[in-house]
Amino acid sequence: MKGKQKTKGKSSKAAKSKKELPSWAKEPFRRFLTHVREIDQVLHLSMRGIASLRGAPGLLEAESVLAEALGDEERPRAEEMQDARKLAEVAQSELNKGFPLLHSQAMVSLWGSLEDLMRTFLSAWLANEPSAKQVETIRKLKIAVGEYESLDDYERCFHMVDLLERDVHSPLRQGVSRFESILQPFGLSGKVDSEVQKRVYELFQVRNALVHRRGVADRRLTEACPWLNLTPGKPISVSHEMYAGYAEAVAQYATQVVGRVRRRLRRLRQADGAG
C-alpha cells in the first residue's frame, strides 16, 4: 500500500509540473496582477484621504479654541483656515460626485497595464519559446539590420513586437481585437467571453475620450457605446461601478490568455516529444 501511495504521489506531482507555466511566462502576468492591485489600492487610499479633508476646518477651529484657552500665541492662521475650508468644499464635492477624476485616472492606468502585459509577454515568448521566431509572420517582418544589431537580446524581442503590431495594424484595432491580432500568429488567440469583450471594448473607447478629448464625450464614443447613454460635448463621469467592471474584465481577459498559453505550450511540448 505504501509503495502504491508513493507512486501515486509521484504521478500527481508530474502531472502538476506539466500544467505549470515556466517562470518566464508567468512573470509578465504576475507583474500585471501586482499593478492592477496597486491601482485599486491607491484609488481607495485617495478616496479615503480626500474624504478625510472634510474634517480639517473643524479640527483647526478646535485647535484654535484650545490654544486660546491655554493662552498660547501659536494658533492656526486665517490663511490656514481659509485653505482648509476650500479643500473641505472640494472634498465634499468630489465625494458627492463619486470621485470621477480618480476613477478616470485609474481606468487609464488599467488600459496601459493591459497593453504593457501583452507586449511584455510576447517579448518573453519570442525570447524563450524556440518556435516563436519561426512563425511565418515573424519571419516576414522587415527588420533594419543595422538598428536590430545595435539592440541587446531583450530589446530585440520588444522591437519585433513593435514591428508585428505595425504589420497587423494592431494600433488601429479596438478592444480585445488589438491584442488578439498580435497573439494570433503564435497560436495564442481564441474566443473571448462576450461580456469581457464588451467591457474591454468600452474601456478602450472611454479611455480614448479621457486621454484625447479631456474627458468629454464625442460622437465617436456615443455611437460606439450607446448603452452608456452619453451626450456628445458633455463630460464623462466614470463611476466606481464602471471602474470595478473594467478592472474585473481585464483580469478575466488576462486569465483567459493564461489558459491559452498553458494549452499552447502543452501542444508544443507534445509535438517536440513526438518529433
Overview of the molecule:
The protein is mainly α and 275 residues long. It has a domain at 98-274. It is built from 12 helices and no strands. Helix 2 crosses helix 4 (78-97), helix 5 packs across helix 10 and helix 5 (100-128) packs parallel to helix 12 (240-274). The model has no long low-confidence stretch (mean pLDDT 89).
Topology readout:
Layout (H helix, E strand, L loop, with lengths): L1 H18 L3 H30 L3 H15 L7 H20 L2 H29 L7 H4 L5 H5 L3 H15 L9 H7 L10 H19 L6 H6 L15 H35 L1
Estimate what percentage of residues fall within beta strands: under 5%
Flag low-confidence runs: none
Number of strands: 0
Kindly report the average pLDDT value: 89
* SSE arrangement, N to C: HHHHHHHHHHHH
Distance between the termini: 37 Å
Q: Radius of gyration over alpha carbons?
A: 26 Å
Helix content: over 70%
What best-fitting shape do the alpha-carbon axes yield? Answer: elongated
Instruction: Please tally the helical runs, counting DSSP H or I stretches of 4 or more residues.
Output: 12
The profile of the biggest β sheet is: none
